[in-house]
Design brief:
By secondary structure, the chain is mainly alpha-helical. The chain is built from 28 helices and 14 strands. Residues 297-632 form the RagB/SusD domain.
Length: 714
């Protein structure tokens, strides 16, 4: 790491913004550092800093693995990852430590080094040149110089924020380093000092950035959102200063009595200055809209481009990580509209069940790909009718459907190929009914029509998929699907990993929930409920808006719908907001609304229920958007929620319903499969980093010093 933590922007400061020209690709590998001392060079360096906005989405082993999964609602599909096994989570060259090494700063083939500290050093160089040389317009136009300084400080603070979320106390490097002198003395600063610094820096950005800017460039609204979140994070941890739990005590960032008020004030200014939420949740993630006319709800997004040569080594790899396998015996071939089925991340059962109002909260319909259509023609890979399933279908089919014969392909081209039902054990479907449809019917719970036994997540051939379903056909998040993967809509690109979509980093819906949480932590629940309901108003189905047909056909909650809503095209009969409007009852102990929310047993007071309700709502609004691990961590509730809700990571017993197909360690026997410990809420310092540290003289740290540097538990 030592040569990468110091490396400058000499390899390539080259990024291009989608549809904008403020980030100019410029090869500077053969130039000296003097290049950055003039106006054009400094501007190029500052523009190049924006490449760090991509860090969570370029490569799973750089950012996605440590920001997306192993929360209460989202998990890795691979059993070793999802269980947080020692071999994955250890402190030397294991996978999580390796990802942290990349996150801190690692080599990147012939491209500029990725990670926080190379980026931070580039920020420090840019700041030094701006303040001490002030070339050209930077010296003659103070407002312009302050704007660019605000960008530098924001982008440096963003890096400190991301690495401290993972590791806690980290080096707070604020001076440029242009020469490798062999001394790698990087003592850690406390989170309290880090937050003091980044709040000061982001405040400067907030005061000096413009209200609008070219797409992808930072604005006052993005800085305000970030600043409000920093104030909230510090306030969240203030009560942990003397906690008996070390992992909570390590979250302490200082105790400033005005933090909640400041979070409310700044969030209010952002909300008042923004244009409101997108009217339809789909608009945020539909690439036909988001890539051409992104809504102003998006306060900041990392930029990628359809010209894949401008996207660095990886491009937007997140477009590959959230889709399960929809091709196995389904009559569906890989297609650009459906995404590449890497099957890396998926919701936990709680992630699905947390949508408490599936018939009325459109976010459930719009977050997931509920149905696939066969597209293989005569080359269909569909499984066939058996004599038994054909007989059942012919005896029970709708009157307008044809009879079938054993041995024929079950799924017809252009027809429904796969649908999903996330039901509970109490609403298990009859196994013969499920297995005798002219499509793959992926149902969480079925009940044997002959023995009465309950089965959990069976494949169409009766195989046990289990909890960590890897590339099985699980109900997948569709927020990242990229029809221009590889740089065009050519179906020949269906195996390309090179995503081109921009990635949302901050949006106004989160600003509302930041303010709501701050209000609630001050006891102003009425104001908090008002902010939450702004999201609920958008989330409601609107009159005439069609629900997915399978909702009316198969979900037991469909009994709440009007008769007309159960008929094609399954259009909502009026606005469903009244059905999902939040009141204080949702977090008041003993109320039906609070009981339905399903709080963990240790949450018993109204204040605690409110806090957990906020994070239930965040999961509903932001599932798979890469903020929930960090948010749960900073709120100090990550471990408790994972233990209760994430069966693969939890070590608890008896919390989940039991199935008959319990074979193998991944079977549904009602017990947790995991090894998570409280100290896992902070990550390990990689061995490859520790062995390169020195003292002030350049002497390598001995084993005792490295051990003292390491986070507890590793």
């Amino acid at each position: 790491m030592k040569k990468y933590i110091l490396i400058l922007a000499l390899a390539a400061v080259g990024v291009l913004n989608s549809c904008q020209d403020f980030l100019d690709e410029r090869q500077v590998a053969n130039l000296t550092q003097d290049y950055y001392n003039d106006e054009n060079g400094l501007e190029s360096l500052i523009n190049g800093l924006y490449v760090y906005a991509r860090v969570k989405h370029e490569w799973d082993a750089n950012g996605a693995r440590i920001t997306q999964a192993e929360t209460d609602a989202y998990m890795s599909t691979s059993p070793p990852w999802a269980r947080m096994e020692v071999g994955i989570y250890g402190n030397d060259l294991s996978s999580v430590a390796g990802n942290i090494f990349n996150y801190l700063g690692a080599g990147n083939a012939s491209f500029a080094p990725m990670g926080a500290y190379p980026h931070i050093n580039n920020c420090n160089i840019a700041l030094d040149v701006l303040e001490n040389i002030a070339p050209g317009v930077f010296g003659t136009n103070q407002a312009f110089a302050n704007q660019r300084k605000g960008e530098i400080l924001f982008l440096r603070s963003w890096a400190f924020y991301l690495v401290s979320n993972q590791l806690g106390d980290v080096p707070l490097l604020l001076e440029p380093r242009r020469v490798d002198d062999g001394i790698y003395h990087f003592p850690k600063a406390s989170l309290e000092d880090i937050y003091t610094q980044i709040i000061e820096d982001v405040t400067f950005a907030y005061e000096n950035l413009p209200s609008s800017a070219p797409r992808g460039r930072l604005t006052k609204l993005a800085a305000g959102h970030f600043l409000a979140k920093l104030y909230l994070n510090r306030a969240q941890a203030a009560e942990f200063a003397n906690s008996s739990e070390e992992s909570l005590r390590m979250l302490y960032k200082g105790n400033v009595p005005t933090d909640l008020d400041n979070a409310i004030q700044i969030a209010s200014e952002v909300i008042d200055g923004a244009g409101g939420l997108a009217p339809d949740y789909d608009m945020l993630f539909d690439p036909a809209i988001s890539e051409t006319s992104p809504h102003s709800e998006v306060l900041w997004a990392g930029q990628f481009d359809v010209n894949t040569g401008l996207n660095g080594r990886f491009g937007n790899r997140s477009v590959n990580y959230h889709v399960g396998n929809y091709t196995e015996q389904s009559g569906v071939a890989r297609a650009m509209i459906y995404g590449r089925p890497f099957g890396t991340f998926k919701p936990t059962d709680h992630g699905y069940d947390n949508y408490k109002d599936k018939m009325h909260d459109s976010r459930y319909a719009k977050t997931f790909r509920h149905e696939y259509i066969s597209n293989m023609g005569s080359n269909s890979s569909s499984f066939a009718w058996t004599a038994e399933t054909a007989a059942w279908w012919n005896a029970n089919k709708p009157a307008d459907q044809p009879e079938v014969r054993a041995g024929d392909r079950r799924i017809q081209n252009g027809q429904r190929a796969i649908i999903y039902l996330e039901n509970d054990r109490e609403n298990a479907l009859d196994s013969m009914e499920v297995m005798s449809q002219p499509y793959q019917f992926m149902v969480r719970w079925v009940r044997s029509s002959t023995t009465g036994r309950y089965y959990y997540r069976l494949f169409i051939n009766g195989a046990n998929m289990g909890l960590a379903t890897q590339t099985a056909p699980y109900l997948s998040v569709k927020k990242y699907v990229d029809p221009l993967r590889g740089g065009s809509n050519d179906e020949g690109n269906f195996n390309s990993e090179a995503g081109t979509r921009d990635v949302i980093l901050m949006r106004l819906a989160e600003t509302y929930l930041i303010r709501a949480e701050a209000y609630g932590r001050k006891g102003d629940y009425g104001s908090a409920v008002g902010d939450i309901n702004v999201l609920r108003q958008r989330a409601a189905f609107k009159a005439g808006e069609n629900r997915p047909s399978l909702f009316a056909q198969w979900y037991p909650e469909a009994q709440d719908l009007d008769a007309a809503e159960l008929e094609p095209p399954f259009a909502a009969n009026g606005d469903s907001y009244n059905a999902i409007m939040v009141t204080e009852n949702h977090f008041t102990p003993g109320t039906p609304e609070a009981n339905r929310e399903g709080y963990i047993p240790t949450v018993g007071t109204k204040r605690d229920m409110f806090i957990h309700f906020i994070y239930n709502e965040k999961n509903r609004e932001f599932l798979a958007e890469g903020i929930m691990w960090e948010d749960l961590h900073n709120a100090g509730i990550l471990y408790d929620r994972v233990m209760h809700y994430n069966q693969m990571a939890s070590n608890r017993t008896g919390l989940w319903p039991v199935a008959s197909n319990t074979g193998g360690g991944n079977g549904q026997n009602g017990n947790g499969k995991g090894q998570m410990q409280p100290f896992h809420t902070f990550r390990p310092w990689p061995f490859n980093y520790l062995v390169q540290l020195t003292d002030e003289t350049g002497a390598p740290l001995d084993e005792a010093a490295r051990s003292a540097y390491q986070n507890p538990g590793y």
